[in-house]
């Protein structure tokens, strides 16, 4: 008799039987509104018929083609489809399986292409759980505790987290950029820095959006010093924020993007995109993996892209996101324990604070539990797990948002 390792810590007691759209049906026959979407993955809803059909058809033809041995049609077709949505100039793709692997790939590319050792990451960023990506993660000590020595060459600069600093956005941004220059002067000289690695919206770090001025400051410094700007779109890509890419909100040009989650509706698939010129500066054949670019995942991803476009999911994320943010703000107005509500599109967080403004993780987690008991599944995030986040599938309707907000108000 085997059992699951305590290495896994489950946020809810739910055991799922099947999923459909925004609902997860558990083994007790209960219908749960899934506002976690498998941590921002199942954007097309659980088991979207078009994605299921594409995957089923592919399974009967070829499951695994191993892309360093042979090339296969689903990978080539997906590459072509992604060409229509990738940021301008990022026309070269490399595929892997998970978000962490995509960030590892971006790190390797950055170091090889520049010949420089250091990367600069930003306070509250989350980039994965492998040792290298955990070394680049500062959204909470839990991701790197007990695994030292971490990867060398990682330096941390502030993210303009206005609420946590207790400042306005402009002051927080000015401070963050000045600290970045101070870091250049002390810890990571520009000519030793390969890349900035940053999320458009801090995800695990508490759902904190960046801003246009800050990203303009990063872009300017990147251009001035020959540093690459790697934008981690793992959680924010594919329409999640109400624009196709999270960084589209900030009018900034990335050199590399990392993609995963919303790419394939739950099939494991990730990747990086960069210009052909930049990819050519890395060492050919230095990246790969047995399962990267799996044929069934690629077929599902191509269908996912079609669903996102045909069903207007980016526009829906923008409209339903406004509804969700407004509704969550109304609840916060009546709740002194909620210090801030923020987000972009269908990525909304409510931060629970104590009377002195500190993080209140006990209340956040009690509310998350109360919501789950009422049939609304939610996750927490933030360094102290005191931000309750809502990330429903992008197919969510206005009625389902209202239903979730009513449960949320009751749980709070
Ligand atoms: N980057 C970001 C922004 C993420 O949110 C995540 C996962 O939550 C990752 C990277 C790591 O992805 P994975 O868990 O698939 O390795």
From TrEMBL:
GO MF term list: (S)-3-amino-2-methylpropionate transaminase activity; 4-aminobutyrate:2-oxoglutarate transaminase activity; identical protein binding; pyridoxal phosphate binding
SUPFAM superfamilies: PLP-dependent transferases
Group of enzyme by EC: transferase
Assigned keywords, A-Z: Aminotransferase, Antibiotic biosynthesis, Pyridoxal phosphate, Transferase
Required co-factors: pyridoxal 5'-phosphate
Gene3D superfamilies on file: Aspartate Aminotransferase, domain 1, Type I PLP-dependent aspartate aminotransferase-like (Major domain)
Signal peptide: none
Chain coiled-coil ranges: none
Single Gene Ontology BP annotation: antibiotic biosynthetic process
Assigned EC number: 2.6.1.19, 2.6.1.22
Superkingdom to which the source organism belongs: Bacteria
Catalytic activity, reaction form: 4-aminobutanoate + 2-oxoglutarate = succinate semialdehyde + L-glutamate; (S)-3-amino-2-methylpropanoate + 2-oxoglutarate = 2-methyl-3-oxopropanoate + L-glutamate
Pathway: Amino-acid degradation; 4-aminobutanoate degradation
Protein family (similarity comment): Belongs to the class-III pyridoxal-phosphate-dependent aminotransferase family.
Name of the protein: (S)-3-amino-2-methylpropionate transaminase
Annotated source species: Amycolatopsis marina
């Amino acid at each position: 008799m085997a059992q699951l390792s305590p290495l896994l810590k489950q946020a809810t007691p739910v055991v799922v039987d099947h999923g459909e759209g925004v609902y997860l049906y558990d083994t007790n026959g209960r219908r749960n509104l899934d506002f976690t979407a498998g941590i921002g993955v199942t954007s097309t809803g659980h088991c979207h018929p078009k994605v299921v059909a594409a995957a089923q058809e592919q399974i009967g033809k070829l499951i695994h083609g191993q892309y360093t041995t042979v090339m296969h049609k689903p990978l080539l077709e997906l590459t072509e489809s992604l060409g229509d949505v990738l940021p301008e100039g990022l026309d070269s793709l490399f595929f892997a399986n998970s978000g962490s692997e995509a960030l590892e790939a971006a790190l390797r590319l950055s170091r090889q292409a520049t010949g420089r050792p250091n990367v600069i990451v930003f306070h509250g960023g989350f980039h994965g759980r492998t040792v290298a990506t955990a070394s680049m993660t500062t959204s909470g000590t839990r991701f790197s505790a007990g695994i030292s020595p971490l990867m060398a060459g990682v330096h941390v600069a502030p993210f303009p987290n206005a609420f946590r600093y207790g400042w306005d956005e402009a002051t927080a941004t000015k401070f963050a950029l000045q600290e970045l220059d101070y870091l250049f002067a002390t810890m990571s000289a520009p000519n030793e820095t390969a890349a900035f690695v940053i999320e458009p919206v801090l995800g695990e770090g508490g759902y904190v959006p960046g801003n246009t001025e800050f990203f303009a400051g990063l872009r300017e410094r990147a251009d001035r010093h020959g540093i690459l700007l790697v934008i981690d779109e793992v959680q924010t890509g594919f329409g999640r924020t109400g624009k196709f890419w999270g960084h589209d909100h900030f009018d900034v040009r990335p050199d590399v993007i990392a993609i995963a989650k919303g790419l394939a509706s739950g099939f494991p698939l990730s990747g990086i995109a960069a210009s052909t010129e930049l990819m050519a500066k890395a060492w050919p054949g230095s990246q790969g993996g047995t399962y990267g670019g799996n044929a069934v995942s690629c077929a599902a991803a191509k269908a996912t892209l079609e669903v996102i476009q045909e069903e207007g999911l980016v526009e829906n994320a923008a409209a339903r996101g406004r509804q969700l943010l407004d509704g969550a703000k109304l609840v916060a107005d009546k709740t002194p324990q909620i210090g801030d509500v923020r987000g972009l599109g269908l990525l909304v967080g409510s931060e629970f604070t104590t009377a002195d403004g500190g993080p209140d993780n006990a209340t956040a987690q009690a509310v998350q539990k109360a919501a789950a008991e009422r049939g609304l599944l939610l996750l927490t995030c933030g360094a102290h797990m005191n931000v309750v986040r809502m990330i429903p599938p992008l197919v969510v309707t206005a009625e389902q948002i209202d239903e979730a907000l009513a449960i949320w108000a009751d749980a709070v």
